[in-house]
Amino acid sequence: MMSVMKVLPEDNETNDEYDIFKQEYATLEVTEENSAARRAETPIAPNGRQRRNKLLGTAALVLVLITALLTGVTALIRSSDKPDTSVVINTQSLDNGTLNQLSAEAGGDAKQQLTITPETIFKQNVVVQGSTEIQQNLNVDGILTIKGQAILQGPVDIDQDATLRRSLTVAGNTAIGGNLTATGSITATSLSVGSITISTVNVSSDISFGGHLIPNGAAPTSRTSVAASGGNVTVSGNDTSGTVVINVGSGGIASGEMAIITFTKSFNSTPKVQLTPISTPASSLNYYATRSATFFTINTSTPPTNGTSYVFDYFVTQ
After folding, report:
1. Where are the domains of the chain?
2. pTM of the shown model
3. What beta strand segments (E) does the chain contain?
4. Which of 42, 93, 130, 261 is surrounded by the most beta carbons within 10 Å?
């Protein structure tokens, strides 16, 4: 008798399909037994036997496929009974329609304004291309770049560098812990910085210094002249201020030019030079200065003394 594969259902929900399968299988066994009895009585031709075997195999395969299909349909129905899990993301588009709706609800005109609560945190860069008005405190931990005009009504605290490409107007106090680079104008009621480097300063009102005025820069060059023949000159300081020491040699003693001091950087026009004698021999001379945009000289109308040092302080302003 031909063997037939039995496929059992996976759960109790397919018992009805399984009972139908058992009935069909029992019928198939009875048919097989009757066929075997007839084969014993009547010989079957070889071609007939092949066709019979093929039909029986096809029937068994069809039963297997039907059982597998019923099992899959049952599993699909079971999975469809589970409730769907949905994810809802609330978003808000800041287009003109949304802004007009918000304006209508607020009873005003939004005009594409964005109101940010104090709890708002920006993780990435924020670019403001138009005018920006900040009425509360502005704390910047990173680099602040302002391409448009900024009007700040409250204090400003900047811990890092700030770059301004246009004007900055600050009504309150401003404290900058890092470098400040401004290519435009800066107008402030009060400006407090730890260190500031300025190439050009234009002041239209008074300047008040709470500390010392400390000029810096390279020392100017110097040399002796006819009134200090055979001696030497040393300068400590810069183009703005310093000390000149004139050592008179043993040459011919004469009144006139003692030393020539050449500025490291020329002035735009002839500056003002103030000389102060800080040694007794220097105070006994009838000294005076001549000046130009590139150098100044220390002169005397009375002959100096051989082997004597004459010390002067100088202060130069445009």
Report:
1. 12-76, 127-196, 221-317
2. 0.46
3. 132-134, 138-140, 144-146, 150-152, 156-158, 162-164, 168-176, 180-182, 186-193, 221-224, 232-237, 241-247, 256-262, 272-277, 287-291, 295-300, 309-317
4. 261
